[in-house]
Structures are given as C-alpha cells and as structure tokens.
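To whoever is on call:

I kicked off a structure prediction for a single chain this morning and the downstream step that reads the tokens threw a length-mismatch warning. I double-checked the sequence; it's 388 residues and nothing unusual in it as far as I can see. Pasting both halves so you can look.
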Amino acid sequence: MATVHIIGAGVSGLAAATLLAERHVPVKLYEASTHAGGRCRSSQHRSLGTVDHGLYVTSPADTQWQRYLTRIGASDATVTFAAPPLPRAPLADYAQALLMLGGHGQVSQLPAENWLREGWLAPWVRGIFGQAMEHMPVGALRHQWRRLCRRHLAMAARQASEDYISPALSTLEAWGGSVYFGHALSKLEWDGARPTHLHFARKKIPLAPDDIIILAVPGPIAHGLLPSLPVPLPMQPAITVHFHSLHRETVPSLVFPVDAPMDMIRYSAERMSVSIRVATRAWPRSDGAIAAQLWRALQQLHPYLAQLPTPPHVVIREKQAGHTVAPLTPVDAQQGAIILAGDWLDPLQPATLEIATAHGHRAAELAMAQLPQKHRPTQQHFYLNSRN
C-alpha cells in the first residue's frame, strides 16, 4: 500500500499524521529535532520543573483543534477560562469599531481616542493572535472575530507537550504509524516531476511510485526545499517568563493586562506565567533585565507582592514564534507532487493552533484523495476546506 511521508512533527504534521493513521493509511513521520510539537512544546528546568515555551490559547470555537484533541483522546486535557467581558464604552466607540470591521485596511486605523482600541482590541490582538495592532489587517480580525466574542478560552491543563503532543504520538504509534526523530530533510531527489528519494543527513530513503509527501515544515524550510514557493513571511519573536511565586490570585485564571510590558498572564498553582507575544523590542535585552521588568509590572498589578524580591524564574525565548500577518494570496497546498501543511500557508491568518491543525487536516485529506483508487480508505468522506 502507498505510504504518506510527512516531514515535520509540529502540530500540522501531527494533525495530518493522526488523521491518516486513523483512516488506516500507512504513515511515516520525520522530525528534525529530538521532540515533537514544533513551537508548541515544553521543557524541563531545574528551578521550576516542566514549563511551556509559550502560552497557547485556544477557543471552544476552534473546530479543527477540537477535532484533533478528540482524535488523540485529549478532549478533556484543557482548562477553560472566562473571556474578558465587553468593556463599558460609549456607543460611538462601538459604532466606530463595527464600521472598521466592515471595511478594509488595518485595525490601527481605528481612531486613537477610541477607548476600545487600546483598552480591549490591542490586548486581544497581541495576546490571542500574537500580532501588533499596526500589523493586523481588518480582514484577519473579522475572520477571527468569533473567537473574541466567545465566553471562554482554553489552555493545556498541565503542559502543552503532556496534554497536546504526547497523546498524539501514542495514538499515531497505536495505529501503526512510525516516527523518526533526528531526521532533518536536506534534499528532495526528483525524476522529472516525481520525487524519488528523501535525503537526510545519514540516509537516503527511496519512494515507491504511489507514495505521497507532505511538507509540514516552517515557511523558510519549505522555501529552501522548494525554491519556487513564495518568499516566506517575516517571523517575529516571543518571550515567556515563568515565575515561581505563592500568589493570591484565582487559580486557574488568565489576564490580558492593559498598559503593561506583558500581553498575557496565566495564574496557576504556585506559578505566574507572563508572555510578551510581540517581543521585537524586548528581544535584545538580557534575560535578567526582562524578568526584573516583568516582576515589577506584576508588583504594580498586585501590591501584596511589592516587598518580595524577584522569585526563581525561567525565561523562554522563541525567535520565530509566528509570522506577521499580511494581506497576501494564500499559498496553494498542492505543489505538484508535494502537499504543504503549516500555519503560514494563509498569510492573512495568524499562527494559531487552530490554523495549524486546519492545514494539517487539509493536507491529509488531499493526500487521501490523491491515493490510487486501490489504496484509498473505504467509506470515507473528505471535506477540503481551506478555512474553518
């Protein structure tokens, strides 16, 4: 039977791999690093134990993400948070916001004196979508608006790797899929329009005539393997700091502060996790300076912490946390004999777990539709939706 070779074990690659394995399609998943999950991962630190590399926020409205969690048996592995209510603001401010959402251009075109802009939209755009106001097109915000209006948000109950990634690997292996770590694809060997070999650092893997390749890698890597692809979008960094602190706030809870150096705060047992989702300005500063600044900001928010020194902490830097959204034409997922997956394929959409899984599912559905008739799973229905 034909095999689907998936390059990249990030969220898109895992979504594609588990969907194919569920439909009894042979899958081989190759990952360049020693861990799966891509940017959605956790790591072990001596001072605080296991911490996430970011604050990954989802929503009950994220249908593709919920579909992924159900498939891997992790639908109960999340904790929900009440979304901040709509603020009290003059009706004129709401009218301006609605007119802005119905038009085109940038979200930053909303007048500066409109309280909704800096008091509600800006924290949401930065915290949820990881975008600065000046970079967020109105079309992207309009498409994501339902997430802003839902009454709940969700995050991993424990850690991202434990709740979102490890169950996917276990599910994939239980269904007969194979995972190979430390396999960075360096080259695709072609015979005319058909790829014949996958070149890794220490081995070359031949492909059968009916095999299919899914490239579920970041845009810059995909562009290096397929130079005909559009130039990748600019990437932006993010910084997350986890403080070990005995705070008095409600556990669990999630806050999007206004007029603060951070974009999001998660309170959990004996820990406060603070995220700078758009960290271009903070990036050159040292870890110690960033931690000290964020701790001072937490002390201002919570006066009972004022006399405490900076507690034990871990600073996590993600140099390429997501792309900058732009009103550009989406990249076609079907590139000849290669199928693409990844949150960067639609430049108008921010890099979220929902977008990553949606493109992973689409790649798997395209692969199944491309299988020879004798190799296709029976009694299956495929829905090729670029946006869900």
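Update from on-call: the warning came from a stale cache, not from the record. Cleared it. Sanity check on the structure: The chain has three domains: 4-49+160-233+327-375, 84-149, 235-323.
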